[in-house]
Amino acid sequence: MNKEKENKRDESIMEGVKKLANLLGKNEDEILSLIAQKKDEMGGLINDYGALSGVASDFGVRISELTDENNISFSKLKDVLTKREISVNVVGRVKRVFPIKDFQRKDGTAGKVARIIISDETGEIPVVLWDAHSEISNRVKFNDIVRLIKGNTKVSTFNELERVEINLTTFSIIDINPESKDVKIKIPEISERIQTLKEVKETVKDDKIPVCVVGRIISDIESNEFERLDGSKGVRSPFFIEDETGTMRLTVWDDMKDTKDKGINFGGLVKVRGMAKRGMLGDVEISTNSAGNIEKSNAKLNLPELKRIHTLSLKIGEISAQYEALSEDEKRTFTLTTKGIITKNFGVKEFEGIQGNVGKRGAFMLNDDTGSIRIVIWNDAADFVENVSEGDAVEIKKGKIRRSIENCEIHISKKNDINLTDKNEFAGLDISFSKSEGVEKKISEISDGDRNVKLVVKIADIDSNQQLTYPSCPTCNKKVMNVGNNEWYCEKCGTSVEQVPKLMLRIIGADINGDGQIKVMLFGDNVEKIMGMDITEILNLVGESGEQAVIEKVKTELQNSVRTITGYAKFNKNFADMVFYADRIE
Q: Per-residue b/e over 532-553, b at no fewer than 16 CB within 10 Å?
């Protein structure tokens, strides 16, 4: 054996090699050869100690048998948290298990990491499992005992708070449910009480609290990728669960695409450990972020049969009424198919979220002989908008309904949920672009609920008491609230979101063929069009001069000009008056 090579090995590894050789009746060279073979089998991803552990396991030897427990003292977790010694030995019960995640190091090499949370009668602490050790997360479960020797403590920062954790290193030893009569490892089992959703709602006040609930998934799980401030990628998967006492929104901060075969999908029963918090409107949401997990449950809940509203085929004019007739729970699972002719293509816009990520949003108006509706397509699927023209026929295979300011929209996020279809199917129907462009009326002639109306107005004034820009939700377009720490909350969706800047302009239009006046609301593309600038230019101008200065500039340029605006009329309770919402402006 090459003595120089042996000397480079860690002494604790060689001690383990010697003990394993003695237990098996082999010499040290044979054990070292088996270690090298094990490393080759793992493609070089496993270290010396991991390979030693694997070789021992192959012969039915626990890795703890290769250590001298009589000379090892174990710390209570409370002492680890307070003393923060670099190297520690601890024993605890598994309280949380997090899945293995792949990552790439700065030098380009691949790595794996997982995490468990262990506790004893004095406290709890996260244990980070790197590379070869990460596989342990697949072998432990709630309430298992783990004995950890030679773990390194590390202080990290999470949500601006210091957090102590134990990291396993090349020389760490971890044993699951060790067979020992040592009183030091007789830790009481963790008592886990399942709370009802009603209890959670009544318990949560202003602070986040840890909870454990069991519920049935009552909405589809749609995972969305986002980019954090540090440039790393994350996945957010929101959906709803129910028990006998109510329903609640749940957000899992992991990709859920591989969990459907495990029963974690629509209609499945799940156990959720996470943090509950109260939202801006008093609603409560459970999040698995940083300290929770979700798993299939075999619990028995006394719930009625869950009925999914299957994808319905609707005419465009039927969509709004059908949607409004649904309960709130039914709206979460409602999808539809529909067809129509593109009568206005708004193109594709890029937007920047609060986390610094860049997304895309495309939109167009879709008409059939019963009405019109706005179609909004997100991110990669938005490329569809760039490849279609006004007059093309489109079929939507699975659309989600979202509420805009005053009306319904169809939102699509997957490429295969929309495609072109034969426009000859609409040849005999009463669809014309003259109709889609609106029926011209005087202001005095319009009524609450009128749609597809064309007004020719003189801009009499621009409301100076308004915000030109506001932060909006990328899902429902509603205005979102800043709740601190660069976090934005959407009341409509009931969750934190990455806000998208949106433009809004309120003008006073005077009828050039009569005496009436009406407030006209312009949003997004229409604000860009009337101002003759795109959103980036407008936001830069606002940043340089302030909103009020920009509004006054716009008023000077637009006052007394005549514009043709097509849209719909709606009584606005905030203004206690009729308001005209622009679909497009000429």
A: ebebeebbebbeeeebeebbee
Exposed, middle or buried, 576 (CB in 10 Å: 0-12/13-18/19+)?
exposed
Number of domains the chain is built from: 5
pLDDT attached to residue 352:
59
Element (H, E) at 470: strand 469-472
Distance of alpha carbon 188 from alpha carbon 142, whole angstroms? 13
Among residues 245, 270, 296, which one ends one of the domains?
A: 296
Give the domain range for residue 418.
Answer: 312-434
The answer on 369 and 279 residing in a single domain is no
Handedness of CA 117, 165, 147, 262 (dihedral sign): positive
> HSE on the CB side for 256, CA within 13 Å?
23
Do 176 and 248 lie in a common domain? Answer: no
Higher pLDDT, 260 or 383: 383
Q: pLDDT over 70 for what percent of the chain?
A: 78
Query: Does 305 fall in a domain?
Result: no
Please give the pLDDT value at position 269.
92
Which of 279, 285, 291 lies closest to 487, judged by CA? Answer: 279
Residue 489, both tokens: 């909350």
